[in-house]
Amino acid sequence: MEAHLASSAGAASPSAGASSSAASPPLTYAATGVRQDLVALALGKLLAAARTNVPPGSGQPVKLPGHFAGLIRLGRETVAITTDNVGTKLLLARTLDRWEEVGEDVVAVNVNDLAAVGARPSALVDYIAVQTPVPSVFEAIGKGMARGLRESRCHLVGGETSVVPDLVKSLDLSGTALGFFPHGRSPVTGSQLRPGDVLIGLPSSGFHANGYTLIRRLLEENAVDVTRALPGDRLPLGQRLLAPTRIYTRPVESLMDARLAVALAHISGRGLRNLIRLNGKVRFLLDQLPPPEGMFRWVATLSGLPSEELYQTFNMGIGFIVAVRPKQVDRALGLLRKSGEKGARVIGRIEKGRGVYLPGEGVRYETY
Q: Are residues 171 and 134 in the same domain?
C-alpha cells in the first residue's frame, strides 16, 4: 500500500502550510464536504419521518434528544445505548496499513458516549462493511478492539460483516454499545447544572476519531510526507495521527461511584460545541483552557484556521469534560488522579447565559 499521501518527499514540517494559507483562504471542514448544517437538516427530516408510537410493553424511552446516548427504561432498570463509527481515519489506516489503532477507536468512541451519561459499559457489537475481507486486517482490528474492551471492561457479544464491493471500496468500521446504571446510580444529563459549577478537563491522546477529512485534505494539499516525523519528534507523523482515542471509562466511573459528576461531555465531533448538548440554559465559560500543544499546534499552523473553526472541529487537547459542584473540586481531582488520570485540570465554570465562551480565543458558540 501507499506509504504517504502525496508524492513529495518533503519533511512533515509545520511551515509547509504557512505560505499556502497566506495565499488563499484557509481550508475549512465545510469546504471538504462535511457540512454540519446539511447534517442537521437531514437528521431532522429522518427523525420527523421515523416518529411513531410503540406499545408500552416495549419499554419507555427517556426523553433526552441530542444527547450522547439514548436511554430507555425497562421495568425498574434504565439502559443506555449508542452507536458510532471511526470515520475517515480509516483511510489513513489504509494508507499506512495499520489497523490496530482503529480497532481500539471503534470501542472508544462508543464507550465514551456511554460514559457521557454516566453509564457503565456492558456490551458492544461491531459492524464491518468491506469490499474484500482481508484476514490480516481483521486480525489487527480485533487486537485493537481487545485493548479497548479490556480498558473499558466491556464485552464483545456479536457483530456483522457485510461484503459489499459495489457499495464500499475499502472498509467501514462502526459499533453499537450498551451500558447500564449500577444499583443506586442515576443517569447524568446536565439538567442539574447551575452557575458556579466547575468544569474539569481530561486530556486527549490526539485527534481521536474526528476531523480526519480535513486533516487528510491538509496533508494532501501541503504535500506532507506522513512517514517522517515532525521536528523534535521521534515517531512518524502518520503514527501520531493514528493514535487511538482515549477511553475515559475508569476516571468517569471513579466520579460516578462517588456521585460527584453533575454533567459529562465527550468532546468528539463538533468539538466544544458538544457542551451545549448538556444544557442550553447555562453558559460554559472556558477561561482556563490549556494552550494548544503538539499535534494541535501543528495543525493550527498548517491550516491557518481561526480559533472558531479549530475548536469546533478538533478536541484541541481536551477529550472529555466533567462538571462538579464548587466544593467538590479538590475531591474530584483527587479521585481522578487515583484512577490514573494525571492530566485532569480545571478549565472553566458555569455561569448565567447560554452557549460556550472561550474568552482567551474570542470565540462564542450559541448553538450545537
A: yes
Residue 143, all three cell numbers: 487486537
Residue 262 · residue 49 · CB < 8 Å? no
The average pLDDT across 344-360 equals 98
Average pLDDT over residues 122-144: 97
Of 104, 112, 254, 269, the closest CA to residue 179 belongs to 112
pTM here is: 0.89
**Total structural domains within the chain:** 2
Q: Kindly state the average pLDDT of the residues 95-124.
A: 98
Q: Which pLDDT belongs to residue 47?
A: 79
Give yes or no for a contact between 89 and 173, defined as CB atoms under 8 angstroms apart.
no
State the Cα–Cα distance between residues 314 and 223, nearest whole angstrom: 21
Whether 308 and 254 map to the same domain: the answer is yes
CA distance 289 to 267: 14
In whole angstroms, give the CA distance from residue 302 to residue 310: 12
Residues 341 and 210 in one domain: yes
DSSP per residue over 1-64, as a string?
--SSSSS------GGGGHHHHHHSPPP-TGGGT--HHHHHHHHHHHHHHH-----GGG-EEE--
Q: Among 237, 321, 183, 262, which Cα is nearest to 11's? A: 237
Same domain? For 210 and 92 the reply is no
Whether 149 and 215 share a structural domain:
no
pLDDT tens, position by position, 306-327: 999 999 999 999 999 999 999 9
Enter the DSSP assignment of 246: P
Q: Identify which of 121, 89, 95, 98 has the alpha carbon closest to the alpha carbon of residue 108.
A: 121
Domain CATH number, residue 133: 3.30.1330.10
Number of H helices, E strands in the chain: 11, 13
| Whether 323 contacts 284, CB under 8 Å | no
Residue pair 262/325 in contact (Cβ under 8 Å)? The answer is yes
Chain centre distance of CA 121: 16
